Amino acid sequence: MKNNTIIAPSLLSADFGQLAQQLDMINRSAADWLHLDVMDGVFVPNISFGFPVIKAAQRLCSKVLDVHMMTIHPENYIDAVRQAGGQVMTVHAEACTHLHRTIQQIHAAGMKAGVALNPATPLCAVEEVLEDADLILIMSVNPGFGGQSFIPQAISKIKRLRLMIDATTKKPLIEVDGGINGQTAPQVVEAGANVLVSGSYVFGAADPCQTIKGLLGHK
């Protein structure tokens, strides 16, 4: 594994009855980011949590807050994400009529801007904003629920995106979300990913901190 890989545990898989303890574990871990999936039940078939939880995470967690908006009209929530403590805001290309403008608005709010692609969405959907976005998120499961199995075709997609990004001057990060575990993590890093989102594999582990180290390639 590359030593500059960023691990972003997904709060979606945490035990919300023990939220403070779970976030304390993340603080003590080798993770760099905390991934927060905001779902509206419209763009994806599930409802997760909103800004009060992000605000709580901001108070309790010292890691970068990586907010993934799985919602329609994500541009309507840019200020709310920033005020809640978000430092990275990722929107879906499928949900943005004016994607370039939305990226600009996220930057104007003082956050890094990411663009996510569902498994069936082709890379050409982000080709024209690679010089503007700070990261591209490849969904390696269909969005909406944690604990799904990794879609193998994501490897080819990551490799092709890496070639596209290497031809740019800005070189946004490649984030991968869905089915990341001890087997798939090395594969996506080898394909060109920089940021690994892992939910149930981390929070369901007997020793989550050691599991995060394992994702980084440490024994």
Oligomeric grouping of the chains: single chain
Number of helices: 8
Shape: globular
Total strand segments: 8
Distance between the termini: 12 Å
Structural class: alpha/beta
Helical fraction: 25-40%
Strand content: 15-25%
Low-confidence stretches: none
Rg to the nearest angstrom?
Answer: 16 Å
Arithmetic mean pLDDT:
95
Q: What is the N-to-C succession of helices and strands?
A: EHEHEHEHEEHEHEHH
Strand order of the largest sheet: 1-8-7-6-5-4-3-2
Word description of this protein:
It is built from eight helices and eight strands, in the order E-H-E-H-E-H-E-H-E-E-H-E-H-E-H-H. The chain is of the alpha/beta class and 219 residues long. An eight-stranded parallel beta sheet has the order 1-8-7-6-5-4-3-2. Helix 2 (51-60) packs parallel to helix 3 (78-84).
